[in-house]
Amino acid sequence: MNSEDKALRRIGLGMMLVFWLLLMALGVWWFERLIETRQYPNANMATTTGEANLPITLQRNASGHFVAPGHINGEPVRFLLDTGASLVAVPGNLAERLGLEPGASADFFTANGRARGYLTMLDQVGLGGVNAHDVRGSINPGMHGDTVLLGMSFLHRFDIQIRGTQMTLSPAQPL
User: Fold this and answer.
1) Tens-digit pLDDT profile for residues 76-108
2) What tens digit of pLDDT does each residue of 26-73 get?
3) H-helix or E-strand containing 18?
4) Nearest to 89 by CA among 153, 22, 23
5) How far apart are CA 103 and CA 121, in angstroms?
6) What is the pTM of this model?
7) Is 132 exposed, middle or buried (0-12, 13-18, 19+ CB in 10 A)?
8) How distant, in Å, are the alpha carbons of 2, 32, 93 from that of 97?
9) Between the CA of residue 82 and those of 11, 17, 133, 135, what are the distances in Å?
10) Which of 8, 58, 94, 99 is the 20 to 30 A CA-CA neighbour of 165?
């Protein structure tokens, strides 16, 4: 085998290596997108602060939860809609980033038991173009992560209907 054949063989091996690396990178990218879509199917939901797009329809994620983008005081957040929560519950680390002021100390009874936190008032909470002002909330130092539990202090504005994998939020009918 002469030196020209060796050079061509090295180029061929290099090109094959580049091909397989690109193919693996494409596979990893595709798989990550698939997982993200299954865990956060409402990621592309409109988060504008303008006119509401009612009704709001959300898809259940692979874990069985309704998760959607929104905002608190103009800052983007990820909401987990929780009809069992009385207040909008914000993790302590996220509350600091959002500049929320802790109010009175309070005990909260959660699925994980009793937790101590602080009451607070959220100037503005938005989901799907629906904006509410002066929403009661809580700051929960024991909550981890950046997901906010969107409780009934915001959700009471809607008639909530769950059918299969969809939750539909429609304007609440006056009593």
Assistant:
1) 999 999 999 999 999 999 999 999 999 999 999
2) 888 877 776 676 677 788 876 555 556 679 999 999 889 999 999 999
3) helix 3-39
4) 153
5) 8
6) 0.75
7) middle
8) 65, 27, 7
9) 58, 49, 19, 15
10) 94
